[in-house]
Amino acid sequence: MSELKVAVFASGSGSNFQAMLDAALPCRIELLVCDKPGAKVVERAKKKDVPVWEFSPQAFPSKEAYEQAIVEQLQERKVEWIFLAGYMRLVGPVLLGAYANRMINIHPSLLPKFPGLDAIGQAFRAGERETGVTVHYIDEGMDTGPIIAQESVDIYPNDTMETLETRIHQVEHMLYPQVIRKLIK
Ligand code: GAR
Description:
The chain is an alpha/beta fold. The protein has a single domain (about 5-110, about 135-150, about 170-185), classed as Rossmann fold. It is built from 6 helices and 7 strands; from the N terminus they run E-H-E-H-E-H-E-H-E-H-E-E-H. The longest helix has 24 residues, at about 160-185. The model has no long low-confidence stretch (mean pLDDT about 95).
């Protein structure tokens, strides 16, 4: 049987993408889609010979147009699953229509608490004693789709944003590959 083909979408540093590469998942990362040309995640992909499709949303007349271009890339490469890993953009109807129930995301909070940008900072500034990580299916909302897995992370009185961020990322890097492994088996 041929290997399952997947794509990862990311906008930034790509430490979660790196964790997937390092986890040697039983699938082939056929494409990295990046909406921020030059982001660090692109370097990580190139080092491992993962093909990259970089695009500037501003270069397209609409969200529908760039999502259509993405879908064409994915279908040409027979991609079956999409894993969002720090893709800081709402997914629209074109992508959702093509990959309904085959698109998941990781988010650094215990959703439904603290959706959106800077979720770690939101929890930290709110004085929470616990936050965490959520993996969920994508729908049209901001970090709102059905939850697949969650893991909590304590916030200690002596935590700084940096120490908390580090622990959250450690959990992300374990949890995401674990969830993906179960989903695609
Ligand atoms: C991760 O913490 C991920 O959970 C978050 O962006 C970071 C990307 O880091 N995603 C969201 O906030 C989605 N709403 P990375 O580029 O090092 O993987």
